[in-house]
Predict the structure.
Amino acid sequence: MMNFEKLKVYQDAIILAIDIYKLTSKFPKEEVFGIVSQLRRAAVSISLNIAEGSGRGPKEFSHFLIMARGSCHELIPLLKISLELNYLHLSDYQQFYERIDNLTRRINALRKSVNSQL
């Protein structure tokens, strides 16, 4: 079993989730069960999938990394909608977009590494 806690991609996914929680704490209260909940679940899902998949064989781990990548992709339209609703500033949107893009690339790299073990 891989020690997922030592993976930089996992550590960065945790930090991203924490930052999404901080960001959404400033959103309107009527969004708590809407976009706030969806953003938080998608952000947390990234690290959860990395952690769960790491305890499986390479084929399953690869699948969980695909799901983690999908959660990254979910964040982008949710943040774009938040931007259009003026819940966040353009600079915040751009910063999170870059972080998510970078994290997605690194998840893909990890997946390629895992797939080379198949």
Summary: The chain has a mean pLDDT of 96.
